[in-house]
């Protein structure tokens, strides 16, 4: 990690952390909104066969898949570093919380939507 004379991070993972968070949150919200829209538009036959459950499962997996490349980008910004950096740990915590929250929303929608 690089620091200027005042001790604040100027380049490296910290500089790219907020834009990557924004990209991830936008992608996660898009996946969840698309899945809920798809659940609402299903016909009665698909609903009865567990279609909403499978849509929720696939969307939850997709939110996790979206976070993986962003974590790799943060890790590549610090070459030859064996430990995780604070931006990587923060993003991992946000990605985990987002995956859990999206799973709760999606599975709740799958079971509670009319």
Question: What features would you describe in this structure?
Answer:
- The chain has one domain (13-112).
- It contains 4 helices and no strands.
- The chain has helices spanning 13-40, 44-48, 51-76, 86-112.
- Helix 1 packs antiparallel against helix 3 (51-76) and helix 1 packs parallel to helix 4 (86-112).
- Tally of structural domains: 1
Overall shape: elongated
Report the span from N to C terminus: 51 Å
Low-confidence stretches: none
Reading the helices and strands in chain order gives HHHH
CA radius of gyration = 18 Å
- Extended strand count: 0
- Number of contiguous helices: 4
Mean pLDDT: 80
Largest sheet: none
Helix content: over 70%
Q: Given the helix and strand composition, which structural class is it?
A: mainly alpha
Query: How much strand content do the residues show?
Result: under 5%
Brief digest:
The protein has 114 residues and is mainly α. It is built from 4 helices and no strands.
């Amino acid at each position: 990690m690089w620091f200027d004379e005042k001790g604040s991070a100027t380049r490296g993972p910290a500089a790219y952390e907020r834009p990557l968070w924004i990209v991830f949150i936008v992608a996660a919200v898009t996946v969840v909104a698309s899945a809920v829209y798809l659940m609402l538009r299903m016909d009665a036959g698909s609903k009865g066969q567990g279609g909403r459950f499978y849509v929720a499962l696939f969307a939850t997996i997709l939110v996790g898949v979206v976070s993986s490349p962003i974590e790799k980008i943060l890790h590549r910004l610090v070459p030859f570093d064996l430990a995780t950096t604070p931006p990587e740990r923060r993003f991992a915590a946000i990605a985990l919380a987002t995956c859990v929250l999206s799973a709760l929303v999606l599975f709740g929608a799958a079971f509670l939507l009319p």
